[in-house]
Amino acid sequence: MRSYDVAIASLAIHATNKWTDNLLTQQTIPDVISARRGIARRITHAALIRIALIRQLHTHLGVSVADSVRIAAHLLESEAPGVYESEQFTLTVDIQKLERDLDERLANVLESAPAPRRGRPPNRART
Question: Of 45, 84, 124, 125, whose CA is between 20 and 30 Å from 92?
Answer without folding.
Answer: 45
